[in-house]
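[Automated response] Your request has been received and processed.

Submitted sequence:
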Amino acid sequence: QVQLVESGGGLVQAGGSLRLSCAASGRTFSSYTMGWFRQAPGKEREFVAAVSWGGTSTYYADSVKGRFTISRDNVKNTVYLQMNSLKPEDTAVYYCAADHTSSNAWYQRMKIGYGIDYWGKGTLVTVSS
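Generated structure:
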């Protein structure tokens, strides 16, 4: 069993920055690909970013490319999402996700939320204009 706990959300003005963290329990963190998703009020949950097992490969939704950076620390069992140049449309609850896969299609799986083994409970990010 793996527990994911997000932190770092809050209220920020447009153009500002936040760094989200997701701490994972357990000793097999490096065997999971990790992702961030978000859900805005009245909208469906959407993919934001994904990172491979060792952190060497990353992928982003077009809406955040160039502004957000996903990274992971397998010693600290933590995945991060650095969010810069925030916009009001980035306002959402942000969720961390873990997929215990060895598939070469790991990014495609994460992008559509297929086979996600664990989800965090989310952290709220509010960007004011």
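Summary generated for your ticket: Residues 4 and 24 are 5 Å apart (CA to CA). The helical segments are 106-111.
If you did not submit this request, please reply to this message.
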